Amino acid sequence: MKSLALLTVALFGTSLALAQPAPQKAGIEAQGYQWNAQEGEKIEALNKKGDIKNGEEAYEICGACHLPSGAGRPDGTFPQLAGQHSTVLIKQMADIREGLRDNPTMYPFAKSLVDPQELADVSAYIQSLCIPTDHGKYEGSDAAVQVATGKQLYEKECKECHGANGEGDKAKFYPVIAGQHYKYLLRQMTEIRDGKRRNANPDMVKIIKKYDDNQLVAISAFQSSLSMPGAMCKAGAKK
After folding, report:
1. How far is residue 184's CA from residue 91's CA, in Å, rounded to a whole number?
2. What average pLDDT does this structure show over 156-161?
3. CATH code for the domain defined by 143-223
4. CATH T-level assignment (fold) for domain 2-128
5. What residue ranges do the domains of the chain occupy?
6. pLDDT digits (tens, 9 = 90+) for 43-78
7. What share of the chain is helix, strand, coil (3-state, %, to 5)?
8. What's the whole-model pTM score?
9. Which pLDDT value is given to residue 11?
10. CA-CA-CA-CA torsion sign (227, 229, 231, 232)
11. Distance of CA 140 to the CA centre of its chain
12. CA angle at residue 94 from 167 to 127, to 5 degrees?
């Protein structure tokens, strides 16, 4: 019962995370590694039709950190998940489960999904959620300048894959970034640039390696300002 698992997370979340160390397989640095390889439970989950109703129950354990709405935390500790492509969610959770992405906090909860069908179900449910409009954005006094600078950089090298509105590409495993928290975006891009995100797209690594910290701040500021028409939550939507 997922409600029991949720209670366990609330009471013993830290000890649960510490009790189950994640494995670590070779990532982007390994010769022959394909960042979007579709094999094992990943391909099984991708080939299954996710059941949104079952996924809602499976998501209960996720809501403890990512919130019931999928909004995550503006401080960037937990990403905004709502509206994310199911393919991206399946890939990331499978990579964490298999030790291709390092996330010790997430690992025991991702591992709690019992099989590829449940992985497909919870991903389908998360994808069905509307994207919150009140996510964390860049709040510096120079916000207008940073967003403008970031827009130039984004349109030069990021737009082709992530889209004009941050919609990503479901078929190519490019994530939705519209509605994502600024601090999470900045942290992930910094980790990708510095080689700490082992399951990152090598093409993105090549692009992002040349950016300094100030440029990553600007790009993240712009990305966090994006919204996807038709996918955002309506005013007054339940959180």
Report:
1. 18
2. 96
3. 1.10.760.10
4. Cytochrome Bc1 Complex; Chain D, domain 2 (1.10.760)
5. 2-128, 143-223
6. 999 999 999 999 999 999 999 999 999 999 999 999
7. 50, 0, 50
8. 0.88
9. 39
10. positive
11. 24
12. 35
The H or E element spanning position 118 is helix 116-128
Burial 49-81 (b: 16+ CB within 10 A, else e): ebbbebbbbbbbbbbbbbbebbbbbbebebbbb
Statement: residue 1 has pLDDT above 90: no
Q: How many residues does the chain have?
A: 239
CA distances from 189 to 24, 42, 68 (A): 21, 24, 26
CA distance 119 to 42: 9
pLDDT at 3: 46
| Spatial contact of 90 and 45, defined as CB atoms under 8 Å apart | yes
**The domains spanning 2-128 and 143-223 adopt the same CATH topology:** yes
**In 10 A of CB 97, how many CB atoms?**
21
